[in-house]
């Protein structure tokens, strides 16, 4: 009981915050008395199982509709107060619809005691209402109820004449709420187009599409190392990774790894952790001395061709989320953990990834 009253009071308060001028009837209504909450005990003759047009005799359904309406009002207040990019038109539409919902809630609470089912519109009449259309039917209902004479609302005058406007049905609240929710959702979508990040999956798909589109153009770099020996490529021919200072690759390999990194970061929040990339002949000799058979024979490493990286950050172990994600997604960028380096391969190295140019 107390909860329901708080809900109704909140609805009216929201309406006031949005447009004080229109909310007068809403703000006055909750003051009626404690009988505002629809009490199932007052209508014992009504079947409590119907969840359709006469659902307002069912408190459970009732409560849901009121909760939805209240939530919609809260969101309306949030979006109008927090958004800086709402158009004046959007803001007005949301404010007006919020007032309509608040008024329906208030009128519903004040009319609950005297409400009788025969005064409500027949189900067939209600079904005829275009609930999904942007027509101002709902507002007109409210205005009729409030006694305003609006020449444009002739299409709903019948409601007022047969007195149904006194009894606000659950469906009226639900319909008005639906419309408000739609306006708020639309506003939020418009607002968040720039601000909200796309999902990691969407970002990955977009990057992969770019990688594929860039493939033909990047093919010109494939032969750029021709004439140089493995590990003897001049620095000018290499491209440094923007997200990993000092780490260099052949230009096409670097470009596609940059795209993969964007996708990886969208998913994991961190850049790819590059522990090794292009390796000069001298450093291959040094690595061979340290790692022994684990490192390729100097002059034969893909690192010496600028098309291999060693990765940390979780990727160095099989079965991690990072490793599995890369196995699934990196091939779309031309990168993969080669078969020999996979778990069960001839020389398992989860951290070692190689680039093979995508076909354009
Ligand atoms: Zn490696």
Automatic annotation (TrEMBL):
One Pfam family cited in the UniProt record for this chain: VanY
Gene3D superfamilies registered for this protein in UniProt: 3.30.1380.10
SUPFAM superfamilies referenced in this protein's UniProt entry, alphabetically: Hedgehog/DD-peptidase (SSF55166)
Domain D-alanyl-D-alanine carboxypeptidase-like core: 248-357
Bias (Basic and acidic residues) ranges: 116-128
Lineage: superkingdom: Bacteria
Signal peptide residue numbers: 1-17
Name of the protein this chain belongs to: D-alanyl-D-alanine carboxypeptidase-like core domain-containing protein
Origin species: Isoptericola chiayiensis
Organism phylogeny: Bacteria, Bacillati, Actinomycetota, Actinomycetes, Micrococcales
């Amino acid at each position: 009981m107390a909860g329901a009253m708080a809900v109704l009071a909140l609805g009216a308060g929201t309406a006031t915050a949005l447009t004080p001028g229109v909310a007068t009837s809403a703000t006055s209504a909750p003051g009626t008395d404690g009988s505002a909450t629809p009490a199932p005990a007052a209508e014992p003759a009504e079947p409590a199982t119907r969840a359709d047009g006469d659902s307002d005799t069912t408190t459970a359904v009732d409560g849901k509709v009121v909760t939805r309406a209240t939530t919609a009002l809260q969101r309306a207040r949030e979006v109008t107060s927090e958004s800086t990019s709402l158009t004046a038109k959007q803001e007005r539409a949301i404010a007006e619809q919020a007032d309509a919902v608040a008024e329906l809630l208030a009128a519903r609470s004040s009319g609950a005691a005297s409400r009788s089912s025969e005064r409500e519109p027949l189900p067939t009449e209600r079904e005829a209402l275009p609930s999904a259309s942007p027509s101002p039917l709902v507002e007109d209902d409210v205005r009729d109820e409030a006694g305003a004479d609006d020449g444009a609302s002739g299409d709903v005058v019948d409601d007022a004449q047969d007195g149904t406007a006194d009894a606000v049905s659950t469906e009226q609240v639900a319909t008005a709420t639906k419309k408000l929710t739609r306006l708020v959702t639309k506003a939020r979508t418009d607002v968040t187009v720039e601000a909200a990040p796309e999902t990691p999956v969407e970002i990955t798909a977009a990057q992969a599409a770019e990688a594929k589109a860039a493939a033909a153009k990047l093919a010109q770099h494939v032969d750029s190392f021709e004439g140089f020996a493995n590990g003897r490529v001049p620095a000018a021919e290499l491209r440094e990774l923007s997200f990993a200072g000092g780490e260099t690759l052949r230009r096409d390999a670097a470009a596609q790894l940059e795209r993969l990194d964007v996708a990886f970061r969208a998913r994991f929040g961190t850049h790819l952790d590059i522990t090794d990339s292009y390796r000069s002949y001298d450093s291959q000799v040094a690595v061979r001395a340290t790692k022994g058979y684990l490192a390729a024979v100097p002059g034969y490493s893909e690192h010496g061709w600028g098309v291999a990286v060693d990765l940390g950050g979780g990727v160095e172990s099989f079965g991690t989320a990072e490793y599995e994600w890369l196995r699934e997604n990196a091939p779309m960028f031309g990168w993969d953990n080669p078969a020999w380096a996979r778990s069960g391969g001839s020389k398992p190295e989860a951290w070692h990834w190689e680039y093979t140019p995508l076909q354009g």
